[in-house]
Write a structure and sequence with these properties.
Elements lengths: L1 E3 L1 H4 L6 H8 L3 E3 L7 E6 L4 E6 L2 E6 L7 H18 L4 E3 L2 H15 L6 H13 L3 H6 L5 E6 L7 E4 L3 E5 L1 E3 L2 H13 L11 E6 L2 E7 L7 E6 L8 H6 L5 H12 L4 E5 L5 H8 L9 E5 L14 E5 L8 H9 L5 E4 L5 H11 L4 E6 L4 H9 L15 E7 L5 E11 L9 E2 L5 E6 L1 E2 L2 E2 L1 H4 L3 H10 L3 H21 L3 H17 L1
Parallel strand pairs: 5-9, 14-18, 14-19, 15-16, 15-17, 17-18
Antiparallel strand pairs: 1-6, 2-10, 3-4, 4-5, 7-8, 7-13, 8-9, 11-12, 12-13, 19-20, 20-22, 21-22, 23-24
């Protein structure tokens, strides 16, 4: 945590006018446009999701907003608290420190004042937190991303349940925005300013990207990604409609068979969430090595016993591509890459070509040829002789309401692996044939009959194709049963683990 002085908190400026301006709350808390509460979120200060004219609003504080008298009281208390803590400094962003400052603020306000808790709460976040940003960051389960589009517009959030919502909070201006971001950046020894107008950093389990002029035409823009760090298990994403039991059973058999798959989609379409959930299907005791760049977004089931996690450019010396090469030296039985962007794709496919299966995510649209072309193109530049390691792709998308779900599943059959005699000729000289398994929102039973995953599973287990199809139905039914039992994540993981042990060794 960082220690920050009174001078830092008032923007480092000397005039009495500027100091007085800094004592205001750095943000506005606007009144609600609607009284219709979709979901009450509780908390020291009431938070709720409201519905208004077909859209959702994430509201913090009283529905009437903050009055002029409340703002004056907040400025008075802010000055008193700053004087009290200026000698010792503050641990900015620490929850216990924010709680301590709430207590100090309450003491200056007096116990009988109307709205005392709200004022104390907002003053504390303005002093010991990141203003409106830390107030929203408290909701670690409900909010996946916080968005600032300009210093004067209301802040938006992406809710795990309601999709993109506006809020009733906004910064008062560019200076206030910059102070909040610099409080975040201080612990990473970074800052945003005229000499450094763009900043990227990790703050605990959040990924922060912020810009100011001249790159942000509006004066300020920021994104705080929180959703990638929440573990949403397989049962949870099935319940949400993100994936069907049949599609999960298909991925399960692919993983068991040691095949290679990429999860594709545009930004914020749930690729990492999907990858984390599918990792619950990993075979017991398989040595799996995970490579991620800078930020650990992938969450694992409690039963994963033989896992190695490696980071790419976190320390500025070794990139993700280097770490995939290093992973191959550790005798992995599977490699997982959080997101393919550059040389790590080339090394990953080289490993796939020598028999090390992989799972990875990448940005791509829902066309199978687009996936292949992007892999072959710079900066990924997968070698022509290794591109045929790709067996399958699952594509995710997000609709206008923010709902994420699988929108396509493809298998790839390659001439170089003698899986096809024809197909689409690529620039690398190879030919590939695409098989779409997705039909009317689910895995097509008709197409599944000719699936290479079913064929590979049959060879892997030494059983007939009919028996493999029966196992697919058994796994689909088992997952349906987990959903119907309405059990928690830990119990679901235990039952899934028991099923895998029975199917593997029973």
């Amino acid at each position: 945590m960082i220690k920050i002085s009174l001078r830092d908190l008032i923007l480092g400026r000397g005039s009495a006018h500027e100091a007085a301006q800094a004592l205001r709350l750095s943000f506005d808390a606007l009144p609600a446009d609607s009284q219709k509460v979709e979901k009450s979120l509780g908390g020291l200060v009431e938070k709720a999701v409201l519905s208004c004219n077909g859209r959702y609003v994430y509201h913090v504080g009283p529905l009437s907003g903050i009055s002029g008298s409340d703002e004056k009281a907040a400025a008075m208390v802010k000055g008193e608290v700053l004087r009290e803590v200026s000698s010792s400094g503050l641990e900015i962003g620490d929850a216990s420190e924010i709680s301590r400052v709430i207590g100090i603020s309450g003491r200056f306000l007096g116990g009988s004042m109307t709205g005392r808790e709200t004022i104390a709460y907002m003053v504390a976040h303005d002093i010991a937190g990141y203003g409106p940003l830390s107030m929203l960051m408290e909701d670690k389960e409900g909010i996946e991303e916080i968005e600032v589009n300009s210093p004067s517009s209301v802040i938006s959030v992406v809710s795990a349940e309601f999709g993109r919502c506006s809020t009733n909070l906004r910064f008062r201006g560019e200076d206030e925005f910059r102070v909040a971001v610099n409080k975040m950046a201080y612990s990473a020894e970074k800052s945003v300013g005229f000499e450094n107008p763009v900043v990227d950093l990790q703050l605990g389990n959040a990924r922060v990207h912020a810009q100011i002029k001249p790159y942000a035409a509006s004066g300020a823009a920021a994104s705080i990604r929180m959703g990638g760090f929440k573990k949403r298990g397989l049962v949870a994403i099935i319940k949400s409609g993100m994936i069907t039991c049949e599609a999960a059973a298909y991925a399960w058999m692919l993983i068991d068979s040691g095949m290679c798959m990429v999860i594709c989609g545009p930004p914020a379409s749930g690729k990492t969430t999907m990858l984390s959930a599918l990792m619950e299907l990993d075979m017991p005791y398989r040595k799996t090595i995970v490579v991620e760049e800078e930020i650990n977004e992938i969450r694992f089931a409690s039963h994963v016993n033989n896992l190695v996690s490696l980071y790419g450019s976190r320390y500025g010396r070794v990139g993700a591509g280097d770490q995939v090469v290093n992973a191959l030296r550790l005798r992995p039985e599977m490699i997982v890459v959080g997101e393919m962007r550059g040389s790590e794709a080339r090394e990953l496919f080289a490993g796939g070509n020598i028999g090390v299966p992989f799972l990875a995510t990448m940005h791509s649209n829902a066309e199978p040829i687009a996936v292949v072309n992007r892999l072959l193109s710079s900066p990924m530049s997968v070698e022509a002789g290794n591109i045929s390691a790709l067996d399958s792709s699952i594509h995710t998308a997000q609709d206008l309401k923010g709902t994420r779900r699988v929108c396509a599943v493809f298998e790839y059959r390659w001439l170089s692996r003698a899986e096809t005699d024809d197909g689409e000729e690529l620039s690398c000289g190879d030919s590939v044939e695409f098989s779409g398994l997705w039909e009317e929102g689910n895995i097509s039973r008709k197409m599944l009959g000719s699936s290479k995953v079913i064929d590979k599973y049959s060879r892997f287990k030494g059983i007939s194709k009919k028996a493999s199809l029966r196992e697919f139905e058994n796994r689909s039914a088992f997952l349906e049963g987990l959903i119907s039992e309405n059990i928690g994540q830990n119990e679901a993981e235990k039952k899934l683990f028991d099923y895998k042990i029975r199917s593997e060794f029973g």
